[in-house]
Amino acid sequence: MRYVAIGDSFTEGVGDERDDGAPRGWADLVAAGLAVHHHPAEVWYANLAVRGRLLEPIITEQLDAALALDPAPTILTLNGGGNDMMRPGADVARLSALTARAVDRCLEAGVTPLLLAGADPSNRLPFGRTLHRRAAELTDAAADLARDRGVLFVNVFADTEIREARYWSEDRLHLNPLGHHRAATFVLAALGVAAPPPPPADEVLPRSRRLAEAGYYWRHVRPWLARRLTGRSSGDGRDAKHSTWALVKPTVA
């Protein structure tokens, strides 16, 4: 089996950093779960996701690279649109059409696509109501697309438990290790694979140390606004963390 993931910070694994600072995240956990499930058969993994990416570059640049991998992928997970949702004038119809194009390209190439709606961070964000409405529309469109094409769809967005503060990192936008683990369990369940063990308690940020509102806006909202005003992205200059096939050892990372 060869599994490739494309997307933005959610799929890159931001919020679930290893000791060396490298992101792990739900897609890495899915790859590890697949390796355990399919052992002794080999599972190879690539992750082309880059934080900050809009859906169009995901659908064009990352998907092109994913389908060009040699040997070809067996399964491809796709999540995107979150960064588009946070920008003025987000066009859900256009984003849905881009997603449909990606699914059709996978099917034409003989690659099994799995669509994923990311977790809903809107409860604690300053622009949360608008974000939730747009993301709900995009999620509904993705569900309809998956049904129409007969492909797997994992709706983490609809999970109310993962919206609780204990699943989120201090920036309130990215899942923490516990949140990424929960997302991975949904994907693995859709693939008929057992969930990995939860992360150790010391990997999860204690909620009692959440930043005060003023500190939160200074450390997280202010830099985000500055990037929007200057046309920059958190992913500028970053490469995919696994741009080629890597053999996954059959143990959970």
User: Remind me, CATH topology?
Assistant: Rossmann fold
What fraction, in percent, of the residue positions are helical?
A: 40-55%
Tally of strands: 6
CATH homologous superfamily classification: SGNH hydrolase
Broad CATH class = Alpha Beta
**Into how many domains do the coordinates divide?**
1
Descriptive account of the structure:
- The protein is α/β, with parallel strands linked by helices and 253 residues long.
- It has a single domain (2-247), classed as Rossmann fold (3-Layer(aba) Sandwich).
- The chain contains eight helices and six strands, in the order E-H-H-E-H-E-H-H-E-H-E-H-H-E.
- It has a six-stranded mixed sheet, sandwiched between helices.
- The longest helix has 22 residues, at 128-149.
- The two termini are 18 Å apart.
Structural descriptors:
253 residues, Rossmann fold, six-stranded mixed beta sheet
Q: What secondary-structure arrangement, pairings included, does this model have?
A:
Blueprint: E1 2-6, H1 9-12, H2 26-38, E2 44-47, H3 55-67, E3 75-78, H4 82-85, H5 92-108, E4 112-117, H6 128-149, E5 152-155, H7 177-190, H8 213-230, E6 242-247
Parallel strand pairs: 1-2, 1-3, 3-4, 4-5
Antiparallel strand pairs: 2-6
Helix pairs in contact: 2-7, 3-5, 5-6
Entry summary:
This protein has 253 residues and is an alpha/beta fold. Helices cover 42% and strands 11% of the residues. The chain has one domain: Rossmann fold, CATH 3.40.50.
